[in-house]
From TrEMBL:
GO MF term set: serine O-acetyltransferase activity
EC number: 2.3.1.30
Protein name as catalogued: Serine acetyltransferase
GO biological processes: cysteine biosynthetic process from serine
A Pfam family per the record: Hexapep
Superkingdom, natural source: Bacteria
Lineage of the species this protein comes from: Bacteria, Bacillati, Actinomycetota, Actinomycetes, Micrococcales
Keyword Transferase set for record: yes
Amino acid sequence: MFFIYSGLHAVWWYRISHALWRRGLRFLPRAISQLTRFFTGIEIHPGATIGRRLFIDHGMGVVIGETSVIGDDVHLYHQVTLGGTGHDRGKRHPTLGDRVVVGAGAKVLGDIELGHDCAVGSNAVVVRSAPPWSTLTGIPAEARPRRGAPLAELPDEADFYVI
């Protein structure tokens, strides 16, 4: 089964291109990234930092930008964009904590941070940071406490805000 799974292939090729990127090479990792995009429909910049066990489900159209940081056990559905909002140098893409789930078609844009165990609804446009155990829905997305969160993990109600 894993021989035909495009999300897995994209992550494998990302790991190779990222290793080359960290060694100071630029052309070859970008070429690998673009070739992988051609075959899988998933574009992961070799400069992105991705934790363990990233799962890209039905990955066509997924884009992960250069300064994105993705924690462990993150799950991305199809047509998700982790994108920048300008041409500034430095950190310009989002940071996702551990165990974040991003629904189909969602856009997470800019140098923002989503805490661990957040869930982003399908087609949401997230442009502001959110605390752990948040659910983000809408355009622009609004954060609210996620159902099923352990009480000890929930931040104070004052920590939740409209995005």
